[in-house]
Specification:
The structure holds two protein chains of two kinds.
Chain A: E1 4-7, E2 11-15, E3 18-28, E4 36-45, H1 57-70, E5 74-75, E6 80-81, H2 82-98, E7 107-108, E8 111-112, E9 126-129, H3 134-142, E10 149-154, H4 163-180, E11 184-189, H5 191-197, H6 206-217, E12 223-227, H7 244-249, E13 256-260, H8 266-272, H9 277-282, H10 300-311, H11 327-332, H12 341-356, H13 361-388, H14 398-413, H15 415-424, H16 426-440, H17 444-455
Parallel strand pairs in A: 1-5, 5-7, 6-8, 9-10, 9-12, 10-11, 12-13
Antiparallel strand pairs in A: 1-3, 2-3, 3-4, 4-11
Helix pairs in contact in A: 1-6, 3-8, 10-12, 12-13, 14-15
Chain B: E1 3-6, E2 10-14, E3 17-26, E4 29-37, H1 49-65, E5 68-71, H2 77-93, E6 104-105, E7 118-121, H3 126-134, E8 141-146, H4 155-171, E9 176-181, H5 183-187, H6 193-208, E10 215-219, H7 234-237, E11 246-250, H8 256-263, H9 267-272, H10 290-301, H11 317-321, H12 331-343, H13 347-373, H14 379-389, H15 391-401, H16 403-412, H17 418-428, H18 430-455
Parallel strand pairs in B: 1-5, 5-6, 7-8, 7-10, 8-9, 10-11
Antiparallel strand pairs in B: 2-3, 3-4, 4-9
Helix pairs in contact in B: 1-6, 3-8, 10-12, 12-13, 15-16, 17-18
Classes of the chains: A alpha/beta, B alpha/beta.
Chain lengths: ~450, ~475
C-alpha cells in the first residue's frame, strides 16, 4: 500500500460556552498502523444549539491542498458525502491545472447518501460570509430577504496574532450585523498555520478553508453565499483557490455553497451602497490590521475604495474613511506592477472620473498615474516579448532596440534628461563609465584630476 | 414589437423519427427553426422539454437584439432560475454583443425527473472520442448533428461523414442518434456560432432528446487552465440544463495531446478520426486547414501519422511554421505539440512549431502595440517616435531585465561627452575615482618600469655592452 494522508473525522468538544472542532491530519507512509502527525486545524464558534455531529467533509476539505501538493491520496475512515466525492475529481483536476506541481488524486472513502442530522431545536437558515467589505455588503444587500445569518471567518484575512485589531474588527462587524438585524457567527480558525506548515501560499488553501467552514456550519446553515471579488470575465485567470468553481464544488447533499456577485462590477457595487446607510457606517476594506481603526486610509485598497466612493458621491457619507482624497496620497500609492483584476478596478475608476469630471485635478492625476503604470506594463511586455522573439525573423531584438533608441535619442535631443538618469545611477555606472573614459583618454585622467584638484572644485 | 415571441413548437412524427419546428416572431418577421432526429415514439415527454429547448435556442439571439423573450410553453424551473446567471456571464464576456440582460417570460413546467440513460455528442473528433472512451461503461447512445459544423447543403460530404460515424459508433457498440437542423440559418444572422452559440445549440438538441436520455455529455475543447470565453464552456454548458436533462461539460482534465495519446491506439479512431470543418475539396479531413495540420503534427509527434489513412501521409513542416494561429484557445495546443515533439526526439517538428509560436507572438505584439503605432508606416520611424514617450518605463525595464547591457549602452555615449562623464564621477564618487585612476595608472606604468629595470645592465655583468 502506498502512502496516504489520513483525514480523521473532526473531533467535537465544548470550549467554554462555544464549541471547538479539531481536524487532525496524519501521514501514513505505508501498510500498517504507524502514522505521523501532519497538522491540525481548529475551529471555534458558538451555535444556538450545540452540534452533535460534524461531517467528515470538513477534514477532507482541509486535506485537499496537502494531498495535491504532496502527491498522496487522502483516506478517510468514515463515509463522506457522495456528491462531495463526485465533485472531488473535478476539484483535484482544477487545482492541478492551476497550480504547478499538483496532481489530481482520489479520496479513499465510502460514499454516504444520508446527511448529517441537524440537532433538535436548531432552526436552519441561510448564511452569508461577511467581512464588512464592498463585496460582502453587496451580496448582503442583494440577498437580504434570504439571509438569516452572517458568518465571519476570524483568522482568514486577519492574523490571529494581532488580537487588538481582531477584536476591533469583530466588534464593528457585530454592531453592523445588529443594525441589519442579523446574528453574526464568528468562526475562529488557525487554518493559516496549516498552510505555513507546508510552505504553501495561503491562496492555495483559502478555498478549502472556506469549504471546511461551510461544511462545519451546514447542519445549521444549509444554504450559504460567499461574495465574489471577481467578475465572470476575471475568473478566467484564476489566482486563488477561493475560485467559484472550487467553492461551488464543495456543496454536498445538505449544503448549497454559492459564490455571488460575479455579474456586478466593483464600481456598481460601491454605487449600490447608496441604499445601505449601515454599510457606509461600518465599511471595512483594509487588511493592514491597525489597533485603533479598521481602515488605514493609506494602502492601495483603502485609497481605491475612497476614490470609488468619491466617484459615486458617497465618500462624504462614509464614516470609516477620510472624506477627502489628497493628490499626495494618490501619488504615493503603489499600483500593481502587472495587469490584473486590481488594475482593472483602477482603470474603471479612471474612466469614471475622466467622463464625469474631466477637469478635476484628481481626475488628471489619476489619468497620469495610470498612463505611467500602463507604460510600465507595456515596456515589460515588450522586453519579455523581445527576449522571446530573439530567434524570430519578425522582431529581432525589439526590446533592446527600443532601449537603445531611448538612450540614443535622449542623448541627442535631451542630454539633460539622460544626465539626470545616469546621475541617479552614478554608483552603479562608475566602472563602465571609467572604462569608457580611461579607454579613450589614456593618461589624461590623472591630469584632469590634478587640474580639478588644483582649481578646488 | 419589442419582444421575441416563441409560440408552442410543433412536434410530429416523420418517417424514421421526430420533427420539431420552432416558430419565432420578431420585429423583423417570422423565422422557423427545424430540428429532426432519428428517434420516434417518445415514452414520456417531460413537460419542460420544448420550452427548455426554445430557451436555449433563442435566449442569446434575443439578448443580441436587445428584446425580451416570451416563450409560450412551459420551461423547467431550474433553467428559468439560471437565466439570470447565463445572461450575466455572456453579458460580462461580450459586453458589446450582449450589452444588457433582457426579460424572459415563460410558464413554469411541472417538475420532471431525468431518465437514467446517458448520451454523448459525437462528431468523430479527438474530444468526442476521448469522452466516449472515458465513459464507455456508462454510455447508452451517441449523438451526431447535421447542420452544426457540417452545412446541410454539403449533401455528399454529410453522407460520407454520417456513414463513417455510423460505422464508428457500431464499432464502439453504441446506437447513433442522428439529428438534422437548420438552426444556423437563423442563428448566424444574430450571433457567432463558435464564440457565442454552439453550447446553447447543443443544449437545445439535448433537451429535445430528454424523453430518451437523462444526461448528455458535451465533450470539452480546453482544459481547466484555459477558461477563455467560448460558446461551449464549463461555466455555461451545464447551466443550460433543465430538470429532465443533466448536461456535463466533460474532459477538461486532459490536454489535447494527452487525449490523443489515449485515443490514437484504438482502431476505430484510426479509421474514422474527423477533425476538419473546412473540408476543402469536399474531403473528410482536408489535410491543409489549420486544424488538420495541427492534428497531423500531434499524430506525427506521437509517431502514428502513417497509421491514419484519413490524413495525408506526409506533413509539410513549412506549412506548420506558417500556420496563422491566433485564437487564444488554440495557442496552448502549440506548446503541447512542441513538448511532445521534443519528447519524441523530433526536433524538426519542434522547430517548425516553435517558428509558428514565435510568429504568433510577433503578431500578437504588433496588435497590442498598434494603438501606439497609429499611422506611422515605418517601424524604425515608429520606434524613434514612440520610444521616447515611454522612455522612463523602458529604461527602468532595461535596468531591471538586463543591467549589464544597460550599463554598457548608457556609458557608450559618454565617449563623445568625456567632460560630462568626468563631472559625474567627480561629483558623485571622487575618492573612488582618484583611487581607481591611481591604481589604473600604476598598473599601466608597472610593466614599463619592470621592462626598464630588466633592461638596466647589471654592474657585475661582464657581457654588458654598455
Amino acid at each position: 500500500m502506498k502512502a496516504r494522508i489520513i483525514a480523521d473525522p473532526p473531533e467535537l468538544s465544548r470550549d467554554g460556552d462555544g464549541q471547538l472542532v479539531t481536524v487532525r491530519l496524519w501521514w501514513r507512509p505505508g501498510p500498517g498502523p504507524e502514522r505521523d502527525f501532519l497538522g491540525a486545524t481548529t475551529f471555534r464558534f458558538r451555535s444556538p444549539v450545540p452540534l452533535t455531529e460534524v461531517g467528515a467533509e470538513v477534514s477532507v476539505s482541509m486535506a485537499l491542498t496537502p494531498s495535491l501538493a504532496l502527491g498522496v491520496p487522502i483516506e478517510c475512515p468514515v463515509p463522506v458525502s457522495r456528491r462531495f466525492l463526485e465533485s472531488w475529481e473535478r476539484m483535484g483536476a482544477i487545482m492541478s491545472a492551476w497550480f504547478p506541481g499538483m496532481r489530481p488524486l482520489p479520496v479513499i472513502a465510502k460514499p454516504r447518501d444520508t446527511s448529517v442530522d441537524a440537532p433538535t431545536g436548531l432552526i436552519q437558515g441561510t448564511g452569508c460570509y461577511f467581512s464588512g467589505g464592498v463585496d460582502s455588503w453587496h451580496t448582503l444587500g442583494a440577498l437580504r430577504s434570504r439571509i438569516t445569518h452572517l458568518i465571519y471567518m476570524d483568522g482568514f484575512d486577519m492574523d490571529l496574532e494581532k488580537p487588538v485589531a481582531r477584536r476591533l474588527s469583530i466588534a464593528r462587524l457585530r454592531v453592523a450585523a445588529a443594525e441589519m438585524g442579523l446574528p453574526l457567527v464568528v468562526v475562529e480558525t488557525d487554518a493559516r498555520c496549516l498552510a505555513s506548515r507546508f510552505f504553501e501560499p495561503w491562496g492555495q488553501y483559502v478555498g478549502a478553508g472556506k469549504a471546511a467552514v461551510g461544511q462545519l456550519l451546514s447542519p445549521w446553515l444549509p444554504e450559504q453565499f460567499a461574495a465574489s471579488s471577481y467578475l465572470w470575465k476575471e475568473v478566467l485567470l484564476p489566482e486563488t483557490s477561493a475560485h467559484f468553481l472550487l467553492i461551488d464544488g464543495a456543496s454536498t447533499e445538505t449544503l448549497e455553497l454559492r459564490e455571488h456577485g460575479m455579474g456586478v462590477s466593483r464600481l456598481q457595487k460601491v454605487a449600490g451602497l447608496h441604499s445601505l446607510p449601515v454599510a457606509l457606517r461600518h465599511l471595512r476594506v483594509c487588511w493592514d490590521m491597525l489597533p485603533d481603526r479598521i481602515n488605514c486610509a493609506r494602502c492601495e485598497k483603502c485609497l481605491r475604495s475612497m476614490l470609488e466612493l468619491e466617484a459615486t458621491g458617497l465618500l462624504q457619507r462614509c464614516e470609516t474613511l477620510p472624506h477627502e482624497v489628497t493628490l499626495d496620497s494618490l501619488h504615493q500609492v503603489k499600483l500593481p506592477n502587472h495587469p490584473n483584476h486590481v488594475f482593472d478596478f483602477w482603470a474603471d475608476l479612471e474612466k469614471r472620473f475622466r467622463i464625469s469630471r474631466p477637469d478635476s485635478s484628481l481626475s488628471r492625476a489619476l489619468t497620469e498615474k495610470l498612463r505611467r503604470c500602463r507604460a510600465g506594463f507595456w515596456s515589460t511586455r515588450l522586453w519579455q516579448a523581445g527576449k522571446k522573439l530573439a530567434g524570430s525573423k519578425a522582431w529581432p531584438g525589439l526590446a533592446r532596440d527600443l532601449g537603445a533608441t531611448v538612450i540614443r535619442t535622449s542623448w541627442q535631443n535631451e542630454p539633460e534628461w539622460m544626465l539626470r538618469k545616469t546621475r541617479a545611477q552614478a554608483r552603479r555606472l562608475r566602472d563602465a563609465l571609467f572604462e569608457q573614459l580611461n579607454g579613450s583618454h589614456q593618461g589624461r585622467m590623472m591630469r584632469r584630476i590634478l587640474r580639478r584638484w588644483w582649481h578646488g572644485n | 414589437m419589442s419582444a421575441m415571441i416563441v409560440p408552442p413548437p410543433q412536434m410530429r412524427a416523420i418517417a424514421g423519427g421526430t420533427e420539431i419546428v420552432f416558430e419565432v416572431r420578431t420585429a423583423e418577421g417570422i423565422s422557423r427553426v427545424r430540428v429532426a432526429h432519428s428517434l420516434a415514439n417518445p415514452p414520456v415527454i417531460p413537460t419542460g422539454m420544448l420550452g427548455d429547448s426554445a430557451l436555449a435556442l433563442f435566449l442569446l439571439p434575443a439578448m443580441r437584439l436587445g428584446v425580451g423573450l416570451d416563450i409560450q410553453c412551459p420551461v423547467s424551473a431550474p433553467l428559468l432560475e439560471r437565466v439570470g446567471v447565463l445572461q450575466e456571464i455572456f453579458g460580462n464576456w461580450y459586453p458589446e454583443t450582449f450589452p444588457a440582460a433582457v426579460p424572459v417570460t415563460a410558464p413554469v413546467a411541472a417538475t420532471s425527473i431525468p431518465g437514467s440513460a446517458r448520451g454523448c455528442f459525437f462528431s468523430g473528433g479527438v474530444d468526442s472520442f476521448f469522452s466516449v472512451l472515458k465513459h464507455r461503461a456508462t454510455l447508452d447512445r451517441l449523438i451526431f448533428v447535421h447542420g452544426f459544423d457540417l452545412p446541410l447543403a454539403k449533401t455528399a460530404l454529410r453522407q460520407e461523414v454520417a456513414s463513417r460515424l455510423r460505422s464508428a459508433s457500431e464499432d464502439l457498440k453504441f446506437p447513433l442518434i442522428e439529428v438534422e437542423t437548420d438552426v444556423r440559418a437563423f442563428s448566424d444572422r444574430h450571433v457567432h456560432w463558435g464564440s457565442h452559440y454552439c453550447g446553447a445549440a447543443m443544449a437545445a438538441v439535448a433537451h429535445l432528446l430528454s424523453p430518451w436520455l437523462g444526461e448528455v455529455i458535451i465533450p470539452a475543447t480546453t482544459t481547466y487552465a484555459h477558461l477563455e470565453p467560448f460558446g461551449t464552456h464549463l461555466y455555461t454548458d451545464e447551466r443550460w440544463a433543465g430538470d429532465a436533462m443533466v448536461l456535463l461539460h466533460d474532459g477538461m482534465e486532459a490536454r489535447r495531446i494527452e487525449k490523443m495519446r489515449i485515443v490514437t491506439p484504438h482502431e476505430t479512431v484510426r479509421r474514422h478520426l474527423r477533425v476538419c470543418w473546412e473540408n476543402q475539396d469536399g474531403r473528410y479531413n482536408c489535410g491543409t486547414c489549420e486544424k488538420c495540420l495541427r492534428t497531423m503534427a500531434n499524430l506525427r509527434a506521437l509517431g502514428v501519422l502513417d497509421q491514419y489513412a484519413a490524413f495525408p501521409e506526409k506533413l509539410d513542416l513549412d506549412l506548420i511554421a506558417a500556420l496563422d494561429v491566433d485564437h487564444p484557445l488554440i495557442v496552448p495546443f502549440l506548446e503541447e505539440t512542441r513538448e511532445a515533439a521534443l519528447a519524441a526526439g523530433d526536433e524538426a517538428l519542434a522547430d517548425a512549431v516553435q517558428r509558428c509560436q514565435l510568429n504568433h507572438e510577433a503578431r500578437n505584439l504588433a496588435r497590442e502595440l498598434s494603438p501606439l503605432r497609429e499611422d506611422l508606416p515605418d517601424a524604425t520611424a515608429w520606434t524613434e517616435k514612440a520610444a521616447p514617450r515611454f522612455r522612463d518605463a523602458i529604461l527602468e525595464t532595461c535596468w531591471r531585465q538586463d543591467p549589464e547591457w544597460t550599463r554598457q549602452e548608457l556609458c557608450r555615449h559618454f565617449a563623445d561627452a568625456p567632460d560630462a562623464a568626468f563631472d559625474l564621477l567627480w561629483k558623485h564618487d571622487r575618492r573612488w575615482l582618484i583611487r581607481r585612476t591611481v591604481t589604473a595608472r600604476l598598473w599601466r606604468l608597472l610593466p614599463r618600469w619592470l621592462r626598464r629595470r630588466d633592461a638596466t645592465p647589471s654592474p657585475t655583468s661582464p657581457d654588458d655592452p654598455a
